[in-house]
Design a protein that fits this description.
The protein is of the alpha/beta class and about 160 residues long. About 30% of the residues lie in helices and about 25% in strands. Strands 1-7-6-2-5-4-3 form a 7-stranded mixed beta sheet. Bound molecules: adenosine-5'-diphosphate and magnesium ion. The site of magnesium ion has 5 residues, from α2.
């Protein structure tokens, strides 16, 4: 697990762009954390890192949005119960695209329905209003081969 600190929304976006640089087709990123901690901001930075030019907006009112970048980016938000139900009904495998990288806000809430191979990013608020603490951990076989590269990419934000 890697623990990081950011001090602004742009800082969180830059961190996310750093992770996006390591993304591979089929990756799943689970975004965890309370409302307003920066899950959508993270997705925006991640998209920038993939070279997505279109603005990334919160998918709070639709289940899924797709963007074109170096890799296609699929962005889901399962906060709403009907989204969660839709996800379960459709089956996550229908939404996960092997050629794309998928980011799921509130993904920890549907973890049992997700494949057990993902990077989890948890965002938490801290003392100052614009401070956030982020923790990254990997589950499954996909990310361990990239652990060193991930540590290097996240070094600017890593706290002891
Ligand atoms: N360090 C930070 N990282 C991310 N967002 C931050 C930070 N500091 C302030 N913010 C603000 O917090 C809010 C995060 O909102 P959003 O990304 O929509 O959260 P979520 O998707 O988790 O509900 C934005 O208004 C953003 O400008
Ligand atoms: Mg959001």
């Amino acid at each position: 697990m890697i623990t990081m600190a950011t001090t602004s929304v742009d800082d969180t976006r830059a961190l996310a762009a750093g992770i996006a640089g390591l993304a591979e087709p089929g990756d799943l990123i689970v975004l965890a954390g309370d409302l307003g901690t920066g899950k959508t901001a993270f997705a925006q930075g991640f998209a920038q890192g993939l070279g997505v030019e279109e603005p990334v907006t919160s998918p709070a009112f639709v289940l899924v949005r797709t963007y074109e970048g170096r890799l296609p980016m699929v962005h889901l938000d399962v906060y709403r119960l009907d989204h969660m139900q839709e996800l379960v009904d459709l089956g996550i495998s229908e939404l996960l695209d092997e050629g794309a990288v998928t980011l799921v806000e509130w993904g920890d809430a549907v973890a049992p329905a997700l494949p057990a191979d993902f990077l989890e990013v948890r965002l938490e608020s801290a003392e100052a209003p614009d401070d956030r603490v982020l923790t990254v951990r990997s589950v499954g076989p996909g990310w361990p081969p990239r652990a060193d590269a991930l540590r290097r990419a996240l070094a600017p934000w890593t706290v002891a």
